[in-house]
Amino acid sequence: MFPATAAQSEVRIVVLFTSIASFLVVVGGTSYPISKLAVSRMAEVFATEYEKEGLLAIAFNPGDVLTDLSRKLPGKASMISQDKPELAGDTLVFLTKEKRQWLSGRMITSNWDMEEFLSKKEEIIARDSLKFRFDI
User: Fold this and answer.
1) Of 32, 84, 99, 131, catalytic
2) Could you count the other beta carbons within 10 Å of the beta carbon of residue 104?
3) Other C-beta atoms within 10 Å of 72: how many?
4) Global confidence as pTM
5) What tens digit of pLDDT does each residue of 2-13 get?
6) CA distances (Å), 80 to each of 14, 51, 67, 74, in order?
């Protein structure tokens, strides 16, 4: 049994931290994007596997925040961070203050306008967007 589904609470939300780097091919930095891709897919797997137990699993990108890791990036890459850490916290509170089951298994980014994002709910559901796909 997955521990999050054993909780007595009606609200069962798991947030897995990922990165936009999961979409990138980075020469010399292979392990980071691959691990973030795995985390994003894990949210999709949890969402499917534990849907009947009411689990909401979100792959969450906290944005372009300056971290110890990004400070070590070569050249100007370490200078591109523009989001404040508080943005990620505010976004998480907003996203999890109520259970939005339709978000389960999807990758959400903190620097999106949340009201605009939520207004696209029907389109996101219809296209099954914000998930990794092998599309031909």
Assistant:
1) 32
2) 21
3) 9
4) 0.83
5) 565 555 667 689
6) 29, 38, 11, 11
Confidence category of residue 31, pLDDT binned at 50, 70, 90: confident
Is 32 annotated as catalytic? yes
DSSP character string of the chain? --HHHH-SSS-EEEEEE--GGGG---TT-THHHHHHHHHHHHHHHHHHHTTTTTEEEEEEE--SB--HHHHTSSGGGGG---B-HHHHHHHHHHHHSS--GGGTT-EEETTS-HHHHHHTHHHHHHHT-SS-----
For 97, phi then psi, to 5°, come to: -70, -20
9 CA to centre of own chain: 22
AA identity, residue 29: G
